[in-house]
Design brief:
Elements lengths: L1 H8 L6 H26 L7 H17 L5 H24 L5 H19 L5 E2 L6 H9 L1 E2 L2 E2 H18 L2 H11 L1 H6 L4 H27 L1 E2 L8 H11 L11 H20 L6 H29 L1
Helix pairs in contact: 2-7, 2-10, 2-11, 2-12, 3-4, 3-5, 3-10, 4-5, 4-10, 6-10, 7-8, 8-10, 11-12, 11-13, 12-13
Length: about 300
């Protein structure tokens, strides 16, 4: 329905170039939104994703242009680093018992500051690094008219759906988010379940971060990836993930991601100031939380009667 309205308001919405760019952005945003959704299902949150993008982009540029590493090795290294950061977050939360909000808020500040320090607060690029053109072509190219990031998202979505809805781990993930103490008493290793969710979030942030870096072609350490974690959280909440944990689906996260990108596309096509993107995002998160609260209240009242 929203797409029909957009096409009516601005026929340019249906142009091939706009639809391909929209699909490419849905692919990039959807990948890390799935990771954030997994964390939210546990009842946690990850505020560090945007800063991880900045650190990843700076390191990727250095690996390619200064260290002259093979392009594929550089990509593997930065994804391994972001996955390790997810592991650190998970261990701090489950072993040291620090709240997810505090752990990832510290990560948000630390990774952003580290990226700016490493880059001397200067914009980084990729120049004529060996193998860069091939990787950028992959990140920004199409296969039979479909943007590559969208195809990557499709593959990841299938695997994530199987992992969440057809495996023992998936059942444990939802159970842990719904009631961690009851799950622990039932024999579920809740610490491992939560840690794996943060590792998955870090891994998917790494993949999305690489695609984003090649898409933008330059990394400003002070602004690259700013607020991206909020887009992921908004997509997950809009797609049915409860911030209390225990609820959510891959299909819902994908729908939430697509809706957010279409709304941003609407803002751009109608000439609305881009600063309103954040207002839209804030409104979406609030609506999602309110809807979740109303649904829970209705369920509680039905149970009581």
């Amino acid at each position: 329905f929203l797409c029909v309205v957009l096409a009516f308001l601005n026929p340019g919405f249906l142009s091939s170039a706009n639809l391909q760019n929209l699909a490419r952005l849905i692919g990039i945003y959807g990948i890390f939104s799935i990771g954030l959704g997994c964390v939210i299902i546990t009842g946690g949150i990850d505020l560090s994703v945007g800063s991880v993008f900045a650190l990843l982009g700076v390191l990727l540029s250095i690996f390619l242009t200064e260290w002259h590493l093979p392009a594929l090795l550089a990509v593997v290294l930065v994804v391994a680093i972001t996955t390790s950061l997810g592991l650190i977050h998970g261990l701090l939360i489950t072993k040291v018992r620090i709240q997810p909000f505090i752990v990832t808020l510290c990560g948000l500040l630390f990774y952003r500051g580290l990226a700016r320090f490493i880059a001397n607060d200067e914009t980084k690029g990729f120049g004529n690094a060996a193998g860069f053109e091939w990787l950028q072509g992959f990140a920004t190219g199409n296969v039979m008219g479909i943007p590559t990031p969208f195809l990557v998202l499709a593959a990841i979505s299938v695997l994530a759906w199987i992992g969440l809805h057809r495996t023992v781990y998936g059942r444990h993930l939802f159970a842990t988010g719904y009631n961690e103490m009851a799950s622990r008493y039932s024999g579920v290793n809740t610490g491992r379940v939560v840690t794996i969710a943060y590792v998955a979030c870090g891994f998917l942030a790494g993949i999305a971060g690489v695609l984003l870096a090649f898409y933008t072609n330059s990394i400003s350490p002070s602004s690259h990836g700013n607020f991206y974690e909020l887009y992921g959280i908004a997509a997950a909440v809009l797609g049915g993930c409860s911030l209390r944990g225990g609820e959510g689906s891959i299909i819902g996260i994908l729908i939430g991601t697509a809706l957010l990108q279409v709304l941003q596309n609407l803002v751009n096509l109608l000439g609305i100031p881009s600063s309103l993107n954040f207002a839209v995002m804030g409104a979406v998160i609030l609506i999602g939380v309110l809807a979740d609260q109303l649904i829970r209240q209705r369920q509680a009242s039905k149970t009581a009667t």
